[in-house]
Amino acid sequence: RRNLILNRMVELEQITPEAADQAKKESIKLAGMKVPNRPAPYFMDYIYQEIVACFPDGETWLQQGGLKIYTTLDPQAQQAAEFALKTGYKTKQWKENGVTQPQGAIVALAPESGAIKAMVGGLNYQETQFNRITSAKRQPGSAFKPFVYGTALENGLTAATLMSIEPKSYQNGSGIYTPTDSHEF
C-alpha cells in the first residue's frame, strides 16, 4: 500500500522518483492498536454486542451516552476469575509441553438464575479481544456429563436404565426441534 501511494505521488509530480525509492527502502513500523484498559473488558464487549443486537438504535444510544446499564457482574467474582486464569496459565508446565501461548476462559453463573457473575474471555485482552466464551466454537465434552446425569438421576433414571437411541423430535415455541450432530468438532 505504501509503495502504491509513493508511486502515485511520483505520477502526480508531488515527489521525485529518487525520493520515492528512498522512502520505499525505509522499514515500516506499525504503531499498533491502543486498546483501552477497563474493568471486565470481555464482559463489557458482550454487553455492547447484546444491546446492539436487541435494540435497533442500540449502537446510537451507546455512542451518544446517557444510558444507565445495570448488570449482574460481581466485581469480586470477576477479580477472582481474572486472577485464577492468569495464575493458572503461569505454570511452567505449559512451556515444558511446548504451549507458548496458552489461552482459556472462565464464566461464572448464578445457578438459580443463570445471571453472569464473572466473564473472562481470554488470558490478555490487550493482546487479543477474541472472547472465547461467546465466540469460540468448542464442544463441552465430558464437562457437560454431570449436568445430564444429575438431571437424569433427579428424574428417576439410574445407571442401569435402558435408553432408546432412535431419533427424537420435540415441539418447541418455534416449531419442531430434532437434535443432530453438527460434525463441527
Give structural notes.
It is a single chain. With 185 residues, this protein is mostly helical. It is 37% helix and 8% strand. It has helices at 2-11, 17-25, 41-54, 58-64, 75-88, 93-96, 145-154; strands at 106-109, 116-120, 170-172, 175-177. The strands form two sheets. The chain has a two-stranded antiparallel sheet. The chain has a two-stranded antiparallel sheet with strand order 3-4.
Distance between the termini: 38 Å
Overall structural domain count: 2
The helix/strand order is: HHHHHHEEHEE
Outline type:
elongated
Structural class: mainly alpha
Annotation, overall tally of beta strands: 4
* Share of helix, binned: 25-40%
Biggest sheet descriptor: 2 strands, antiparallel
Total number of helical segments? 7
- The low-pLDDT segments are none
Instruction: Round the Cα radius of gyration to an integer and report it.
Output: 26 Å
The chain-level mean pLDDT equals 88
Give short descriptive properties of this protein.
185 residues; 2 domains; two-stranded antiparallel ribbon; 4 strands; 8% strand
Topology:
Blueprint: H1 2-11, H2 17-25, H3 41-54, H4 58-64, H5 75-88, H6 93-96, E1 106-109, E2 116-120, H7 145-154, E3 170-172, E4 175-177
Antiparallel strand pairs: 1-2, 3-4
Helix pairs in contact: 1-2
Give a short overview.
With 185 residues, the protein is mainly alpha-helical. It has helices spanning 2-11, 17-25, 41-54, 58-64, 75-88, 93-96, 145-154, and strands at 106-109, 116-120, 170-172, 175-177.
